[in-house]
Amino acid sequence: MFSALKKLAAGNNKNEANGKTPAGGQQAMHASLQKKFAKGVHYNMKIIIRGDRNVGKSCLFHRLQGKAFIENYDPTQEIQASFFFVASIQWSYKATDDIVKVEVWDVVDKGKKKKPLEGLKLNTLTPASLAEEPALDAEFLDVYKGTHGVIIMLDITKQWTFDYVKRELPKIPTTIPVMVLANHRDMGHHRCVSEDDVKFFIESLNRKTDAQIRFGESSMRNSFGLKLLHKFFNLPFLALQRDSLLKQLETNLQEMSLTNEELDLYLETDDASYDKYMIINVVCFFRIICMVSFC
Questions:
Q1: Domain assignment present for 253
Q2: pLDDT for the residue numbered 83
Q3: pLDDT one-digit tens code per residue, 19-67
Q4: Lowest mean pLDDT: which of 70-74, 170-174, 221-225?
Q5: Is residue 121 part of a domain?
Q6: Do 273 and 178 lie in a common domain?
Q7: Sorted alphabetically, which InterPro entries does this protein's record hold (predicted)?
Q8: Residue pLDDT, tens place only, 125-142
């Protein structure tokens, strides 16, 4: 796994040096974000985008980075990212001064495996026996590890994309806030997945946690729904912030307990006894008098 990541990272650096767009959707971080993050990051937040093929995941991935709508459909072969498989976007929570690094992953369920490296010639191995290089997909990586929010998309004009949502939504950990995003709202005249059907299914899951499953509609063509998503990002951020504060509180309680133990130990020493303290001071005083007398 790590060798595959290293190869892709090396390829990314090489392409950037040559001024080329890296393969697999990897892109360099925008200069404004580099300048912002150089001051220090308070929170790292990971958002993943899931959904069946051709529902608009890559379009959303680009829209969140402030890029234009992609008219032609080009299937994503592996998880897309900017610097090392991640796209950082401009986002902040209300008027807070906290610097939040938002990493967005365009997740592919099953990517196309790559062919063996060219130029590899081993007489003892047949082409069929050469191991293929794994694709960065949901089968290769645990995409929910370290994830703070999930956007799972469907196409309102394709019923099977809703079937995907019904199959995958229960698999998402209940601690992660989710946005079910019904895309292609601009194609409403071809709609076959109703808003009520999606909401009814979400309610049927009966999630009893603070990490709710929300519903929204979007159109990547005209940017409808992007403002809703930016507000949705508040939920994973607040959950991340709460976890951080709870850890700080736990550390604070531990430090208080250690300080109380230190105080108890100090009270058992000679320094905590007034009588012993005075004796030590008197002895020191006479030593000084003697030294002065001898001088």
A1: no
A2: 30
A3: 444 444 445 566 665 666 666 778 899 999 999 999 999 899 889 888 8
A4: 70-74
A5: no
A6: no
A7: P-loop_NTPase, RABL6, Small_GTPase
A8: 555 555 555 555 466 678
From the number of C-beta atoms within 10 Å of its C-beta (0-12, 13-18, 19+), residue 215 rates as: middle
β partners of residue 215:
180
| Count of alpha carbons within 13 angstroms of residue 160, beta-carbon side | 3
| Structure-token pair, residue 95 | 């008027």
Residue 212 and residue 164 share a domain: yes
Q: How far is 129 from 111, CA to CA, in rounded Å? A: 20
* CATH code, domain carrying 106: 3.40.50.300
Domain count, the chain: 2
Within-domain flag for 120: no
Q: Which domain, by its residues, includes 75? A: 2-113+130-232
**Do 92 and 47 share a structural domain?**
yes
Is residue 209 located within the same domain as residue 289? no
What band does 293 get if pLDDT is binned at 50, 70 and 90? confident
| 217 and 262 belong to one structural domain | no
